[in-house]
Design brief:
Layout lengths: L1 E5 L6 E2 L12 E3 L2 E2 L32 H4 E5 L2 H9 L7 E3 L6 H4 L1 H12 L3 E5 L8 H10 L2 E6 L7 H6 L6 H13 L3 E9 L7 H13 L5 E5 L4 H15 L1 H11 L1 H21 L15 H22 L4 H16 L4 H14 L6 H15 L1
Parallel strand pairs: 1-5, 3-6, 6-7, 7-8, 8-9, 9-10
Antiparallel strand pairs: 2-3, 4-5
The structure holds iron/sulfur cluster.
Keywords: Iron, Iron-sulfur, Metal-binding
GO molecular function: catalytic activity; iron-sulfur cluster binding; metal ion binding
Pfam family, one: HHH_8
């Protein structure tokens, strides 16, 4: 393992829109680049995200897997986060960093301290129970604004199969234990069940076990997604797959080369997750946190939440297309709207709603129904 300490020029990533229906984050920031856990399916290796570009840092060429063998440490992470976050509108920020290097540097903790000071709500997506040692700060963020910890879990079993795909990550049992500790401290947590590996972890038994275990450990949701395969990530993942069971390569090829088969498979997988979430009485999505938004905008954000969740369900049920885009555009418009949508409706009726950019007749009617139901 090679570590490099450096000063980064910027740290805060800002999305144009929140990732509605998923984690609800607007911002993200990371104290380290690369990840020592080196999960074989990790899409952060992709050229699009991978910070280790050989064109800028030729030394990365000497590593077999630069993403997990060469970790860069941003020594100015917290100072920069403070500077870049302080004048931003309050919204959810995605932070992760509890990998082994955090034991020594504690930069993830320092970034959380900045979020606490500036009163920013936080979503953490983690694999390591190490974050429990920072329970003091986690509790404070939760009390002051909002904290949600999504545990990255693809199986409930700590067996050889799991180790073939997550060789250096902490045991799943430790993640579930940490989830339980968060729940005991009244902090929202759940399982980020991604990616569900085809022909390995997509059986009903694994799906139900993960969901049941999440429920038993006080988790409030299970958020699922399948495996995406492209470019360098695919090449890397196939090496691990070949080592695990070479006969699966042909099965993966057949599945991923046939768009229709993949679409139908994805729908079946999601339906299975929905079935067991219902059986074990646990949410299949993360409810949007609203309390940290200005009061007059909360109703806009709430209706946007309904539309964003519709987008996600349409995507996962293979019914995307025009309908998905109509919901997405309506959600974006409501999120960007600076006036209270109820005031618009009260003063101008449904015509007023239709004057909002991105809101057509059907969306305006749905907003009207929601507003009227809320007033009854
Ligand atoms: S822990 Fe997360 S970021 Fe790290 S390698 Fe695994 S999936 Fe990627």
């Amino acid at each position: 393992m090679t570590y490099k300490i450096y000063k980064t020029k910027t740290i805060l990533n800002i999305q144009k829109h929140v990732d509605g229906g998923w984690f609800w984050v607007k911002y993200s920031a990371y104290p380290y680049t690369g990840c020592e856990y080196g999960c074989e399916y990790c899409y952060s290796r992709d050229e699009k995200y991978n910070p280790h570009k050989a064109s800028r840092e030729p030394e990365v060429l000497k590593f077999e897997d630069p993403f997990s063998e060469y970790i860069k440490i941003k020594e100015n992470a917290s100072e920069l986060l403070k500077k870049e976050l302080k004048n931003k509108l309050r919204d959810l920020i995605y932070i992760d960093g509890y990998q082994t290097v955090e034991t020594k540097y504690r930069y993830a903790r320092k970034m959380l301290e900045v979020c606490l000071d500036l009163n920013f709500p936080v979503f953490l997506n983690e694999k390591s129970p190490m974050l429990i040692r920072d329970m003091d700060i986690l509790k404070k963020i939760n009390e002051k604004s909002y904290l949600n910890v999504g545990w990255s879990i693809i199986t409930s079993r700590d067996d050889e199969t799991r180790l073939a795909f997550e060789p250096k990550a902490p045991p799943v049992s430790a993640r579930f234990k940490a989830m339980h500790q968060l729940a005991e401290n009244k902090i929202m947590a759940g399982t980020v069940f991604m990616p569900i590996l085809p022909f390995i972890y997509d059986d009903e038994r694994n799906i139900e076990e993960v969901i049941k275990k999440t429920k038993d450990c006080g988790g409030q949701y299970v958020l699922d997604a399948g495996l995406t395969l492209w470019g360098y990530c695919k090449t890397h993942f196939y090496k691990a797959l070949k080592k695990y069971d070479s006969s699966l390569i042909a099965k993966y090829d057949r599945l991923y080369e046939n768009k229709q088969a993949l679409g139908e498979y994805t729908v079946r997988l999601h339906q299975s997750v929905l079935k067991y979430c219902k059986k074990h009485n646990i949410m299949s999505y993360i409810p949007r946190p609203l309390k940290f938004y200005p009061e007059k905008l909360q109703i806009n954000k709430k209706i946007a939440e309904i539309f964003y969740l519709e987008v996600r369900e349409l995507q996962l049920s293979g019914e995307g297309g025009y309908k998905e885009w109509a919901y997405r555009k309506a959600a974006w418009s409501l999120d960007d709207l600076e006036e209270n949508v109820w005031e618009i409706f009260k003063n101008k009726g449904i015509d007023g709603l239709m004057q909002i950019k991105g809101i057509g007749t059907s969306m305006a009617k749905q907003i009207e129904e929601f507003l009227k139901a809320g007033k009854n």
